[in-house]
């Protein structure tokens, strides 16, 4: 997963092309899939075949278009994240080393995306949680949205992301590894540049109307 400022930025960059009317609902959809970390529902429920995969499909409301932009960015980004890792040809499984590496990349990316949002950052505070869609615990769903809004009341920090990961029941040793690796990336200008290029490559292709790759 990319982190949520990245998904929000991507959704906003596609909003005109998707003819979005209800921006708060659209952005709510764009961050909904990762609520699974807080609610405990399966990734297959929020990211699998039953979820909206293509935001350009006719008949989707704005919330579901946002949801689909989330899945689209995940799909377009995954190989790009892996290509910067020492093990680009293996599959990400569980909370292993490759998950840690790509998650650290995504934190660097997310900090830059929040900065790039500029005045649009205020839109984050207008986002409201949806009604229960997949038998989630409503309290946990609402808490997820509140935590995201809290994270982005100002520029997100590495400690803020760490606290969020621990709230999402990511094991302490994994969250610690992500923290340490992200901290090392922050001291590496070349790595930061390569990570930030990922977003630009993806959004430039999408704004040109390039067809997305087949979804797995």
Task: Write a compact overview of the structure shown.
This protein is an all-alpha fold. The chain contains 10 helices and no strands. The model is unreliable at 211-216 (pLDDT under 50).
The share of residues in helices is: 55-70%
**Shape verdict:** globular
By helix and strand content, what is the structural category?
A: mainly alpha
Biggest β-sheet description: none
How would you describe the oligomerization state of the chains in this entry? Answer: single chain
Number of beta strands: 0
Strand content: under 5%
How far is it from the N-terminal to the C-terminal residue, by CA? 15 Å
Order of helices and strands: HHHHHHHHHH
Alpha-carbon Rg, integer: 16 Å
Poorly predicted sequence stretches spanning 5 or more consecutive residues: 211-216
> What does the average pLDDT come to?
94
Give the number of helices: 10
Structural notes for this entry:
This protein is mainly alpha-helical and 216 residues long. The chain has one domain. It is built from ten helices and no strands. It has helices at residues 4-14, 23-31, 36-39, 43-47, 62-83, 97-117, 138-151, 158-167, 172-185, 189-207. Helix 1 (4-14) packs across helix 2. The longest helix has 22 residues, at 62-83. The chain is globular, with a radius of gyration of 16 Å. It starts with a helix and ends in a 9-residue tail after the last helix. Residues 211-216 have low confidence and may be disordered.
